[in-house]
Amino acid sequence: MRYSIDHKSPVPLHMQAEKLLRQLITEEQYQNGINIPNEIDLANMLEISRTTLRIAINKLVFEGLLIRKKRAGTKVAPGAVSSKSNNWLSFSQEMKLRGIPIKNFELHVSWELPDSNLARFFDIKINEPVLKMERVRGRPEEPFVFFASYFHPRVGLTPDDDFKRPLYELLEQDHDVVATLSKEEIRAIGADENIAKKLQVPIGSPILFRKRFVYDQEERPIEYNVGYYKADSFIYTVESTR
């Protein structure tokens, strides 16, 4: 695949390079252990300086997505495409990587006025509409998760966008918004009448409630997401190194 940078874009060159690197490392040959192109070749291909490129590479090394060794080159870290908390994916991407076929049981997109907490998180006025997306998803035979996402007006999403695509792919490719930071809260709850109906479980069934705050590269909020998972369908793994 040919990669290029738009030198007329207002997006900083190192941010464009980082976005392209994130796409590059998903290619099968690099996932299988082949070194990514060296700095000189990449810099020449993108028509940017090695210093600019190194900023982007260092970011991915810091996130644990790339491993760089002297005289050995740079390659994708083993297991870099995963659900670890320091390298999260959209639900669609994660399920695809796990080989799990996914069905959308419900998909609703609408404009909604934010409550005071959401307006505070987005730093907007309560009379400024935000886009809300609700989805019930699961295996072909049954649903196992209900999502509700709210998007900052700055992102530019509208009901006309194709929400059947992976969300963060849609944001990056169509709106030049790169989600880079996710802060999450997870706790156990009992299913209320609404959640029980959507997930086809008895009222009071154990549910894993996952709240996610998503930010862009400048650490500006772009999405507030809540997810309700059937307790037997989700395992959350946290890996820490020192």
Query: What is the gyration radius calculated from CA atoms?
Result: 20 Å
**Helicity, as a percent range:** 25-40%
Mean pLDDT: 86
| Helix-and-strand structural type | alpha+beta
Q: What percentage of the residues does DSSP assign to strands (E)?
A: 25-35%
Number of strands: 8
Count of helices? 8
What is the chains' assembly state?
A: single chain
In whole angstroms, the N-to-C terminal distance is: 36 Å
Name the strands of the widest sheet in spatial order. 3-4-5-8-7-6
Outline: globular
**Biggest sheet, open or closed, and with what strands and sense?**
6 strands, antiparallel
> In terms of per-residue confidence, which ranges show pLDDT below 50 for 5 or more consecutive residues?
80-87
Q: How would you spell out the order of helices and strands?
A: HHHHEEHEHEEHEHEE
Provide a descriptive summary of the structure in words.
This protein is α+β, with helices and mostly antiparallel strands and about 240 residues long. The protein is built from eight helices and eight strands. The strands form two sheets. The chain has a six-stranded antiparallel sheet. The two termini are about 35 Å apart. About 5% of the residues have low confidence.
